[in-house]
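Complex record, two chains
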Amino acid sequence: MTATLISLELAFIDWGWIGGHLDDMWRATIEHIVLTSIALIIGMILASLLSLVALRWRRTYGPITWVTGILYTIPSLALFTFLVPIFGLSLTTAEVALVSYTLLILVRNVVAGIDGVPADVIEASRGMGMTERQTFLSVRVPIALPVIIAGLRIAAVTTIGLVTVTVLIGQGGYGVFILRGIRRQFATEILVGTLLSVILAVLVDAALAGFERWATPWARRSATP
Amino acid sequence: MQSTPMISLESVTKTYPGESLPAVDRLTLDIAEGEIVVLVGPSGCGKTTTLKMINRLIEPTSGTIVVAGRNVLDVPAPTLRRGIGYVIQQVGLLPHRTIAENIATVPTLLDWDRRRIDERVDELFDVVDLDPAMRDRYPSELSGGQRQRVGVARALAVDPPVMLMDEPFGAVDPIVRARLQDQFLDIQRRIGKTIVMVTHDIDEAIKLGDRIALLNVGGTLEQFDTPMNILREPANEFVVDFLGNDRGLKRLSLISISEATLEQGPVIAPSSSVEEARRVMARYDVDWIGVGEAGRLDGWVPGSVLEGRTNLEGLELLRFRSWLRLDSSLLDALDTVVSSHTSVAAVFDGDRYLGMLTADTIGKEIIT
């Protein structure tokens, strides 16, 4: 019974179409990665600056999370629509929207990571004669790295999903397959766009996790009895 | 003898913002080179505040602090701190750096070259008796006691003349603490640093301090003297209360057996007659007799086994259960006295029998 269902569903898939569009898929993958990367890089830079402000002037942390929180809650479709009159059907529109969605997650994790550095470690660092700058750059930031990367992973997975929507404002990526599949009522193409997006998200998440393990070897070893 | 102090606090006061009463109130202390001064007192007595003002982690409200001839406020804080060893209760090792890198923190800040740093780290592993296999481990892989020793090694890295220690042995269990304290005293005997240490534990203060500064709530100095003098002549009621009601025993812990007068005790040669044994037992008013001669003490027998005998030949001797060495304290001796059948503590130098102590002779040592 199950076997026949699966074979029925597999029958919906037009393997011939897939075989004939491998080039398209490759191009869409590159586009998807570029759109995602730009958003994450700009998002990380902006979030770092906002976090520095929040850490330096504590009272700004509330308003910063409030504003980035509002941005985070705006439905993506609506946000793209609002931005089109300003930036047109452009890469800028897509990236402004994508970046806004990363900010809340990234700022929260950067601030939480930096704040989570144990007080005794900070006291010892200052007590040994590190300047405030040295304490920040060579103690606080490296120790906060696992938490910051955790935020980056969530932001990356979220962004990869959101990039599919940017097809509506004329951008490429896997969204092209999904939109075209819906218009042509062609299940194979929708499925391919969706699956590729999911696979990319899983791979990027795993890659970042691997990077974290490589960059913070100290965080995974624990006390030997 | 009275040379320039290594650390000098002159009427130092700290009042935290928003507080009406000072945390430290016009504190004046002179600390000589090479001595361990322990700041001790109840919580809220400003002992940690005092310590942190010396390396400017806290800035005094008024007063002057001079370290090695320089007013600390005239030296940029990071420069000052690199020249003063600092050890805290939670150790504060950098979790993302290896043990060797942690120990090398201050040399690295001072831009020592790679080879000099490596050599110094090797030396320090030796000084604090750490296994060199730990070099490339991370702090999370070490036990509490090991971390504490790394903390001390790190503070010693650039061989600073002054060390500040804030409850350095507070975070480890009592057995490890006692061992770390002994090891610390051992290291200090070799390196002779000027050390200011904070503790809330009066026993630790008595054990480690050359002098103790007893502080009261509000940061007032109640007494500043050697442990022995404080125990012998507490300055006031506060000091008496803080020392607790076992002041006599604490004093015993400071006197080593080598300072006490030993008595030969009821000991006779194996060849002696039972009659001789009875006479010695009567003289000492005991119901047992020790057997030995020529610097040996082989054991003892209870008086009851002598019934119906004329000599000691063939008697099975009971052993003295705990033996004391000359560097043990009179408190250890008293413990042996009260827990032994014979109510004496036999003292040996290696195998050589030196004499014994009784509750009476130990008591005399405190009274004199």
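Note: The radius of gyration of chain B is 26 Å.
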